[in-house]
Amino acid sequence: MSDSATNSGHPGPGATAPPTTKPAQLWWKSTWFDIVQFVALGGLLVWLTGRGMAAMDYRWQWYRLPRAFYRVIDGELIWGPLIDGLLVTLEIAAWGMVLTLVIGLVTAVLRLSDSIAGRILAKVYLETIRNTPLLVQVSIFYFVLQPILGINNPLWTGILCLAFFEGSFASEIIRAGINSVSRGQWEASATVGLNRLQAYRYVVLPQAVPLMLPPLTGILVNLIKHSAILSFVAVFELTTEARNLIADTFLSFEVWFVVGGMYLVMTISLSSLVALLERRIRARG
Amino acid sequence: MTDHGQENAQRFADAGRPAIIRIEAVNKWFDDFHVLKDIDLTVGAGEKVVVCGPSGSGKSTLIRCINRLESHEQGLIEVDGIELTDDNKRISEIRSEVGMVFQQFNLFPHLTVLENCTLGPIRARGLSKTDARALAMEFLEKVRIPEQADKYPSQLSGGQQQRVAIARSLCMRPKIMLFDEPTSALDPEMINEVLDVMTELAESGMTMLCVTHEMGFARRVADTMVFMDHGEIVEMASPETFFSTPKSDRCKDFLEKILHH
Amino acid sequence: MVRGSKKPRFGILDVIVLAAAIAAVAYVTYRVDSVLVYTWDWSAIPGYLFRYDEDLGHWVPNLLIKGLITTIRISIWALIVASIMGTILGVMRTSQRLLPRLIGWAYVEFIRNIPPVPFLFLFYFFISSQIIPLLNIGSALDQASPATLGVVEFLFGPANLIENFLSGLISLSMMSAAYIAEIVRAGILAVPKGQYEAGSSIGLSKLAIMRYIVLPQAIQRVVPPIAGQFITLIKDSSLVALISIQELSFLAMEIAISEQRFFEVWLFTGLMYFTICYACALAFGRLEKRMGRHLR
Fold this sequence. Notes:
The structure holds three protein chains of three kinds.
Chain A: H1 4-7, H2 31-55, H3 66-69, E1 70-73, E2 76-79, H4 81-112, H5 116-130, H6 134-149, H7 154-180, H8 183-191, H9 196-227, H10 238-249, H11 252-284
Antiparallel strand pairs in A: 1-2
Chain B: H1 3-15, E1 19-30, E2 33-44, E3 48-52, H2 59-66, E4 74-79, E5 82-83, H3 88-97, E6 98-101, H4 113-123, H5 129-142, H6 158-170, E7 176-180, H7 188-203, E8 207-211, H8 215-221, E9 224-229, E10 232-237, H9 239-244, H10 249-259
Parallel strand pairs in B: 3-8, 3-9, 6-7, 7-8
Antiparallel strand pairs in B: 1-2, 1-4, 4-5, 9-10
Chain C: H1 12-35, H2 44-49, E1 50-53, E2 58-61, H3 63-93, H4 98-113, H5 116-135, H6 137-143, H7 146-156, H8 162-189, H9 193-201, H10 206-236, H11 248-259, H12 262-290
Antiparallel strand pairs in C: 1-2
Helix pairs in contact in C: 3-4, 3-8, 3-10, 3-11, 4-8, 5-8, 8-10, 9-10, 10-12, 11-12
């Protein structure tokens, strides 16, 4: 047993150990090479689509598309149908989100309550929404509930229907968020003398709300996505405007590509926000 | 060879055992974190080595390199005369010679205790089902839980699960057993049942490398103590020397923390 | 679980909820009976479920049941196709190489972010004008023997609608595949790293680890949510009504218009969907409890 054992941990200037650096990575195993291949594949896909369209003798007429966004008549700017549709879609999403939160919150409270009737009502609502297609819900709202309740604006029927649909998801998110706060937190609140309401206000909600935020933002993405289904009942949102425009101009692919792109810009930017929020929360532990 | 390597070789020559594991100037990085720095360690057949050190010192990584659950980036690791490289065939040869027991047991939850033990012999060794079953029962008896053979891991206590994990490794008839903190995930009252099995295994002459903080077990069983810190082997000695006269300050600190509380 | 686990009892909230429910029912009844002066007539519905065929001399399914069969048929096929696509994509998303991960990620994110309705219109147009003609199904079926035709009709529905059915099926499968990919990815990732390590430490090859350790566990985790995806498919398949696939929603729409009975037809259609989906949900719930008992 030599004394050098204790020294090997502190290699001084005269240490015999060879310089140890991490060996370099092979280029074809590198991240960049994979990214280059991925971009190339994407290019190939676009090229193939282009070939397919060419084979179909499709005449691209992109120059006609700006008119779908705006026109200038007598020096006055008039928004085109796609912009009108986009605004309606955004309006549906915004009001839909407010109503979704209200419905979701009420349902979550009923489910978490100890009221028998409340729990049954919430359960019936959730099972009905979960086990029928959105299209059928839209039809029932539009063809049945609208005349019965005397709503005279299909836009509001649509918003109400989407809110009831998304509300079922929102209630689950809120409930799960509150339940994720451990039982010990309630018990600890009680031991420091907080009542139930104070425990919610100062202990449970501050922990639960950050957890709920990303999935609730996800609901906003879904509202934008699902609002397209309202084109089925003549609500003049983006998809309806797109379909009408195609019927008028036969610019099928131009319009669908552009409209798909508009939707993707909205949803992907919101989805990225969700991802960002989630990462923040995970980083905080 | 580093200074440390010479000392290592010296110790080894004194004991007069044939080498079964040779680790020379091994380096490893996790991204930019240098986890293993110029490690030299030789283990003889039948030798019991206990590796200890603070968390993050690289001790688990070291023994995981021996059956290539981690790959080293520089240096040489030789197990029973076979060098560890990217060659997959050699890796599986070595893995069937080296048993490993994990901190978290890692039993297969979808298989019964018996199936856990027979999976390797049947699928890797090509044993018949009856032979594998007989083999498994033999080792389950050695770890004293033959009556649990048809249960699922989730129905057993932590101590029982770890004993099954030991039996599962032994069913491969390994020449070397690696233990990666085998008692750290156990409730205190279950630690001894696992240590007892390990002690018996040591007495049977198995070559063992254990990462553990159970210093009582180390004193009883170890031929050699290895202390690691910051990815280096700081101290290597017989248990008597190691516990009575640790040389480095880092080792003294560590022993103080772990022994006196 | 803190509040929800308390014993239910009758309280003030019950009074409020009941009062609200009674008020809602009363208001709807008042509107229907006194303002709209609507007379309910359900008599047309049974005739659309089954009708008596004079030529054959027995009862045959009529539009609503035919539509339901198409809905179930397209959902089963879409589940099969999407499971295959989704498994490949899901395995790609857990690959150690970046390239397959990127491809899987791009596909899943695209589908998850594009609204289904514009997607259906675009792809239906593309698939039905580009891909389906390549398959040359029409002429193949013309030459088929009656026996083959019978099998094909059982699997894919009426021969004259097969191209239309396939277009809807492909679009629907492409959407569902993205969700199944996520389920498969989660299933694989849920198998802890220690399982792979334990497998290799007893000398199993990579393939054997997959075959005997990872997949059995992943499958137990993945089957219940994929079964749930079947319910989602039954619901989402109603969207293909928009591209004129003649499934339940499409036919309901036609009947409602021709009979001018919107209330009855849509409520009944909703009930049909509910019955199927709820029954599946109950059955799959049992399945889920039975599977994965040992995965802690």
